[in-house]
Amino acid sequence: DLCPGRYNGPQIAAKFLEQYYPENERPNVRLIDIAAGTGRVGRELLDLGFHKIDALEPSDGMLQIAKQQQLYQEYYLESIGTTKTSISDDVYDCLVISGGMGEGHIPTKALNEMIRIVKPVVFFLPGGLICIVMREEYLTVVSEYAGKLENYMHDLQEQQLWEQISRTIIPNYSFQKNGVVFMYKVLPTN
């Protein structure tokens, strides 16, 4: 079961974003919850004062549950991968993923699409954040990520598409296993 206490990803994701956005700015931050599922991350973000949240989810059944709860403004019934989504460039101040990274889930190359739909950081304005919350062991046991995901993250940084803010290990993230939270800021292109 992905109930709170056994799977803490949504709370962890929300707490990390809470640190980056002062309370008075949260109502105006435009976010997208990737692999939104039934909306647990959305609920946590709403409780912290974020209001402009959209959902992208490939499962119609899960997205319908999120719609019934009226957690999001826009609902995208699609997946994120190696092809473009229906979302325009530079739309979001922040993108969050919790629970979407795993075997057979979001591919490594989807990071490019995430960067494309997030606004770059501009001077002191809030925005340009990508928060990826996942089980730490997936970095070594998931074939799509083992020896690839962090290398690709580094390659994107070398290309000056984004910059790592932090990489934090979280004890008891999911089913008493450690998690890892990657925070990146999207950089302006020249």
Automatic annotation (TrEMBL):
Residues 32-120 form the Methyltransferase domain. SUPFAM superfamilies: S-adenosyl-L-methionine-dependent methyltransferases. It comes from Strigamia maritima. It comes from the Eukaryota. It holds the Pfam family Methyltransf_25. This is Methyltransferase domain-containing protein.
